[in-house]
Every structure is written in structure tokens, then in C-alpha cells.
Amino acid sequence: MSSPSGDEGMDQTHEHKMSFEGAEGRPAPPTSLPLQGQVGVASQRKKLSAPRISLSLDQSEDDLFDTPDDLDINVDDLDTPDEADYTDHEIDWEEPQASQSESVKETVEPIPTYSAQEERQDSKLWRTVIIGEQEHRINMKSIEPYQKVISHGGYYGNGANAIIVFAACFLPDSDREDYHEIMENLFLYVISTLELMVAEDYMIVYLNGATPHRRTPGFNWLKRCYQMIDRRLRKNLKSFIIVHPSWFIRTILAITKPFISSKFSSKIKYVNSLAELKELIPMEYVHIPECIIRQDEELREAAENSKISSFLQGSENPQESIAQPNASSS
């Protein structure tokens, strides 16, 4: 008869627990039911899972961990914060990045692809040379109209001595905006070409005729050329012939004498005509520009006229001198 009293006590406890939890505002689901067995066997209780559990933010961590394993929760039904619930600071943080990425996408251009012919053409625009153990790059496109300034004039002597022709009439005008850039690349081109043309002894023929003052190279350019020439080239240079020298080029060479050796100064020779040049070197492979040929003809005609006029003046003077004594004797 003690078991009914025990059940009543348990019911009272269960009711007290429900009333206590109900006071908090949420009913507590039943967690056990009385199980009656055979007579004389002590009553046992069996734990059963609740059919529904309402989750809320007010539950404690202990209640969350008591959730059964077979609980089926639909994640899609859960309320999640949307984009509008974020703070303004987070929205401002994302928008600049998006705008920057969009601007980058707009400004990025595809890299142009070169064909084999374009690559060969581009390689022709630049030439890499080594002068004085230093690597230099020459912009061949910028000096394309002026590459005739230096040429090979064949050989003299025993056939191994080269003749290098430098035509100053092919130099650029000094009033060009890119004059210094062109002269820099042209300087590297002349020095590198000279090293390729010369194997042993050689001479330089400097054609100064038909060159206006604006195309005459300056003192600094000539001085730098001399300083950058390799020692082997200086030693192997046998003669430096200047054809049709002007007073300006004579003055420049006079100024450069303190900066050059006496041996180099002794190699400089002045030639006033192409006929005199022909007496010094073979002219078969020496290319003379047409403007220099015309000037040489003009200078030759002027020289002949000057001789005729001086001859006529000299022939007239003796007649006057003869007539004066006759007059005095009479």
C-alpha cells in the first residue's frame, strides 16, 4: 500500500515542477511516465522524448545540450539577418572595394600579341651594343635618316687597312627638339659601327663640305667621341683626313688639342679638294655625296677664276711699270 502514496508524492512533485516552470512563463514538457509492471515488482519510470520543442533565445546552455539527437530542425525556417540588418559601417566597407574592382576591370586593357614579323620588326628598332665594358641600347628608328653619316670606303695599302668615311652633311639640324637624343643615339651608333668595321689599321676621311653651321657637331660631341674610342682604335688610326675644312672646324680642332695626345694631332691632315684626296687614297669605293661634289666643283671653278684674275692683274701691272719709265725718260 506504500506504492500509491509514493505515486501521489511523485505526482505532487511533478505538479509542483510544472507550476514552478509555468511561473516563468513557459510550460515544461513531461519527461517521464509511470510504468506499471508485475505485482510485487517495484514501479519503474521510462524516459520519453518530447514530440515538440520550441527553441527561443531565452534558453540557457544547459537546455540546449539536453536536446535529443533525433531532433529535426529545418534550417530554412530559421530567421537569419538579411543585408539590411548590417550596420552602415559594414556596408561602406564593402562598397569601395566593389567600386575599385569595377574601375580596375574597366581600365585594364588586353596585352597586344605580337606576330613573328612584328617581333622581328621590333628587334630592328633597338640595337644593344657594348662600349667600354658597358651595355647600351640604340634607338635605330630615331637615327634611321642619319645612318649614312658613316660608311665603309674600302681598303688601302696592303688591302687590310680600312677607309672609314664620315659625312657631316648627313648630321641632324641642331634646331630640332630631339637633337640631343638623336646625337646621343648617333654617337653610340658611330662608335659601335667603327669597332665592327675596323680589324687592323685604318684611316678616317671626314667630309666637311656642304655642311652648314647648324649641322656641324659641337666641341663636346667630338671630345666624347675621342674619349669613348677604344685604345686599340686610337692606336690603329693612321690618318685623320679633313676634306674642305672650314674655319669653324679648324677652330674646334684647335680647342681640342689640349684634350688629345700629340700623336693624334700629328695624324690630322687638311685637304682642300677631292682631287687632292684622290692623290692620297683610292676613291673607287669611297661614297661622296652629291652636295659635296657640287661644292667641290664650285670651289674648283672659283679657284680657277681667282688664278685667271690674278694672272690678268699681274700682267697689267708690268705694262704700267714699263710705261712709267718711258714717260719719265721723255
Automatic annotation (TrEMBL):
InterPro entries: Bcl2-/adenovirus-E1B (IPR022181), CRAL-TRIO_dom (IPR001251), CRAL-TRIO_dom_sf (IPR036865)
Localization, UniProt: Cytoplasm
Biased composition, class Acidic residues, residue ranges: 59-84
GO biological process, one term: apoptotic process
Entry-linked Pfam families: BNIP2 (PF12496), CRAL_TRIO_2 (PF13716)
Record keywords, A-Z: Apoptosis, Cytoplasm
Superkingdom of origin organism: Eukaryota
Protein's organism: Cyprinus carpio carpio
GO cellular component: cytoplasm
UniProt domain CRAL-TRIO: residue ranges: 139-300
Residue span of region Disordered: 1-84, 310-330
PANTHER family listed in its UniProt record: BNIP - RELATED, PROTEIN PRUNE HOMOLOG 2
Name of the molecule in the record: Protein prune homolog 2
